[in-house]
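In this supplementary section we document a worked example of the pipeline. Step one takes a protein sequence of length 146 as its only input; no multiple sequence alignment statistics are reported here. Step two produces a three-dimensional model, which step three serialises into structure tokens for compact storage. The input and output of this example are shown verbatim.
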Amino acid sequence: MFRLGFSVSGSAAIVFVGIFLAFSTAYTASTNGFERVNDAQSAVDDEALERQNTALNITNATYDSGNGTLLLDVDNEGAAELSVGAVDLLVDNTYRDNFTARRVDGDAATDLWLPGERLHLEVSLPTRPTRVKVVSGPGVADVEVL
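The serialised model returned by step three reads:
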């Protein structure tokens, strides 16, 4: 009959402690990874819902050749609150951010564009454009051909 000495018992204890530490580290890493994936999926779902609740309508797009100004009126016809600062304007496929006026229902100080409100934009342009596109923060857009 063999007797297990301290070296075999000590080695087994060290191996078991090592396995326990490795498992606990792997469990923590995998839990954090799954949590990050779930958070990312939730953010994607929230963005998709915001896009579904966003609708724009360009109600007026005119070019005043007297002073070289493009005048735009855009209605927020969706259910989502939008940020005026996140609105982008493309004029003949050129990005424009040189607004001479940008107001929501007459208020130039607000950045909040609520459902049912009208955004008024004015941009100085040297020539009459043929196409304008207004893009909201969530990426929903409307196009008007002049």
